[in-house]
Amino acid sequence: MNSETEVAPAVASILAAARERSADGHDRVSVAARSIPDAIERAAADGRVPVIAEVKPTSPTADGTRDDDPVDLAEAMVDGGAAAISVLTEPSHFGGSPEALTRVREAVDVPVLRKDFLLREDQLDVVEADLVLLIARFVDDLGGLVTAARDRGFQPLVEVHDRAELETAIEAGADVIGVNNRDLAKLEVDLGTFESVSAHVPDGVTLIAESGISTPADVRRMREAGADALLVGSAIMDHDAEGDVTENTRRLTRVAATEETDTETQT
């Protein structure tokens, strides 16, 4: 794991809290996971951009907090065409909880990602999900944690920020990789991050673009750079305005269909 001097104070605080969170008292989980590659294929076959929409009550970079019921939010996202749902389970900085994830997974029929800062194997046994996020930069034994996740039935989504982390993820056996466009030192977003890393991802990997995707133009840019799916949180949650989550989701999942319609109209 890289030094915490390379991350923003907010990220260092999140990591410190993650280290203190105990998973004692939980039995080892065993999950029959819903396939994320299959969900992505279904969305594409339906003419939708495969979007993993994120139930995120708040975050260190959000402009506000949404207190909507997580199940209502997730169902609205699925109504808007989301191929999968991401649920924050980090409580201190994102307002999430394992209980929210359980309720969401019971309510929807698409894959559900557990979004958290998982550092140790025992932290996998807190709640059942279809995918778990493993951030390459923060895990000491990534290969071991990838294996431990798979042994429980999870699909590990390994998040990277640069080519060196990509190589680490590939060496760890990751076959679902997310490239995060947010720099962890300044918390700034640059969509060029995905473009620079995605060119080096081997065939057979499910590739997900994360962070900073807020407009149809962003969607097209990430898809053209090779993204199989997009993980979108703030643009859908719309923390400051509390906008319509269904419409926010549809605006991004129906980009391809909109382009086709525009072309036909011009013709």
Describe the SSE topology:
Elements: H1 9-20, H2 36-45, E1 51-55, H3 70-79, E2 84-88, H4 91-94, H5 98-107, E3 112-115, E4 131-135, H6 142-151, E5 155-160, H7 163-171, E6 176-180, H8 192-198, E7 206-210, H9 216-224, E8 229-232, H10 234-237, H11 245-253, H12 255-266
Parallel strand pairs: 1-2, 1-8, 2-3, 3-4, 4-5, 5-6, 6-7, 7-8
Pfam family, one: IGPS
GO biological process, one term: L-tryptophan biosynthetic process
Domain Indole-3-glycerol phosphate synthase: 25-241
Task: Provide structural commentary.
The chain has 267 residues and is of the alpha/beta class. It has one domain (31-266): Aldolase class I (TIM Barrel, Alpha-Beta Barrel). 40% of the residues lie in helices and 15% in strands. An eight-stranded parallel β-barrel has the order 1-2-3-4-5-6-7-8, surrounded by eight helices. Strand 7 (206-210), helix 9 and strand 8 (229-232) form a beta-alpha-beta unit. Helix 3 packs across helix 5 (98-107).
Short structural summary:
This protein has 267 residues and is of the alpha/beta class. It has helices at 9-20, 36-45, 70-79, 91-94, 98-107, 142-151, 163-171, 192-198, 216-224, 234-237, 245-253, 255-266, and strands at residues 51-55, 84-88, 112-115, 131-135, 155-160, 176-180, 206-210, 229-232.
